[in-house]
Amino acid sequence: MNVLRIDSSPLKEASVSRGLLDVLQNKLESQGHEITSKRDLYYDDKVTLGSQDRYMGYFTPADQQSDAQKAAVAGSNELALEFAAAEAYIIAAPMYNFGVTAGLKTYIDLISRAGISFNYLPEGPVGLLKDKKAYVVVSTGGTPVGSEVDFVTPYLRTFLGFLGITDVTFIAADLSNVNREESIAKATQQIEAL
Ligand SMILES: Cc1cc2nc3c(=O)[nH]c(=O)nc-3n(C[C@H](O)[C@H](O)[C@H](O)COP(=O)(O)O)c2cc1C
């Protein structure tokens, strides 16, 4: 499988999710899969909030876009096409204030594109990304994954499902502010068992 790696912590060496994505990457590579692309969302100049030109550009046919809209949509086109081309995903999802980080949410707004990752049909929107596999590492400081205030897991399950990605494995690296070593060890075990 061609795998896209997505890091969404601004932290580098100190990041729990980044370290665990390294473990997951090694695991998948040892099984013959290849990491063919990587996005480090806090360090990627395509991952920006955007302005009116981008969002008006989304809803304007390409041959009718202004030059400003074309330029504003270009980064999103690249990210969305790259996402659609991958066969599998490894995604780091640190919890910030009970949801995903701003970097991950911004990326989601960039790759969720009608005509690329989903389509509007008369009966409603339908995901275009079929037969893909996603692994998501959810890292938290004090909120248990699966608790009623964990909005990361259900949100990502819903979003990925919206795009057609229903085969999703969540790896919990939670409560690292309570016991960091235990949190990482538990998640590592889960990855090694994949
Ligand atoms: C701005 C900010 C908000 C956070 N909000 C939460 C939270 O709502 N619940 C929680 O359990 N941990 C929270 N944390 C802790 C992080 O989830 C935790 O440090 C986790 O390991 C982050 O992933 P990372 O180490 O890969 O960056 C927050 C941390 C920061 C910096």
TrEMBL record:
SUPFAM superfamilies assigned: Flavoproteins
Co-factor remark: Binds 1 FMN per subunit.
Cofactor: FMN
UniProt entry tagged with the keyword Thylakoid: no
Keyword field: Flavoprotein, FMN, NAD, Oxidoreductase
UniProt-listed Enzyme Commission number(s): 1.6.5.-, 1.7.1.17
GO molecular function, one term: electron transfer activity
Binding residues annotated for FMN, in chain numbering: S9, S15, V16, S17, M95, Y96, N97, F98, S139, T140, G141, G142
Catalysis performed (reactions): 2 a quinone + NADH + H(+) = 2 a 1,4-benzosemiquinone + NAD(+); N,N-dimethyl-1,4-phenylenediamine + anthranilate + 2 NAD(+) = 2-(4-dimethylaminophenyl)diazenylbenzoate + 2 NADH + 2 H(+)
Enzyme class: oxidoreductase
Family, similarity comment: Belongs to the azoreductase type 1 family.
UniProt subunit comment: Homodimer.
UniProt-recorded name of the protein: FMN dependent NADH:quinone oxidoreductase
Organism, scientific name: Nonlabens xylanidelens
Organism classification: Bacteria, Pseudomonadati, Bacteroidota, Flavobacteriia, Flavobacteriales
